[in-house]
Amino acid sequence: MTQLANRCTLFLFLLLVFAAGCQKDGKDETATGTIKISLQHQVNSQPLVLATNTYTNASGEQFTVTTFKYYLSNFSFTNTDGSVVKFPGKYYLVNEAVSESKTISINKVPLGDYKSVSFTVGVDSVRNVSGAQTGALDPLNGMFWSWNSGYIMAKFEGTSPVSVANDHSLVFHIGGFKGEYNSLRNVTIATAGINVPAKAHITLVADAAKWFGQPNAVSFKNIAAIHVPGADAYKIADNYSKMFTSFTVAE
Questions:
Q1: What is the pLDDT of residues 72-91, one digit of tens each?
Q2: Nearest residue to 74 (alpha-carbon basis) of 186, 149, 169
Q3: Where are the domains of the chain?
Q4: Short-list 227, 246, 232, 218, CA closest to 56
């Protein structure tokens, strides 16, 4: 019995050594965490308030916002060592009118320090031609044209006294997933340092005024509506790809 006990003791000791070897600095190398991403919407650095507040575009024209929503997809995070962790096939419809849509949780992120976050504004070509979708990609969300034109990547609606429309409306439905007027945009934002799990909360700030600023200034006297893919939608997509900034919040 003594010999058996000694063998059991040795086995337990080796098991503990092995478990310790699977850890680094006290952390399980196979463990993961969650990065939470919060979206805040602004116009010219002021809080976006739907339907009531009046803002001014880069051309000095006043406007209000009644609808502001867009797709984010295919998130990835770049580690400080240069490695990239990708989360493909995930699509999120961010809608200013739906508060819960402005919080995105990315699960099963390997522990580590991340220096940037990347994502696509829009829905990739595969999903545009994959038939009826559900969830965030459900056509009932009002973000889909047809199987030929595909998804509306981003939608901005409002009013302006200088709008060329009879009712002074502004309707910018930006889409197009193929050819020279592909409106998909990939965005990379440097972070202040994301440590999973210690600091795993990023706030992305999206400024709607950027839609009509640089590099393609838009006057509502000239363009008040976009309903189809094309050159104008392409230029707006270039603009709004620059609307994001970020800061890190410790959990």
A1: 999 999 999 999 999 999 99
A2: 186
A3: 1-28, 31-249
A4: 218
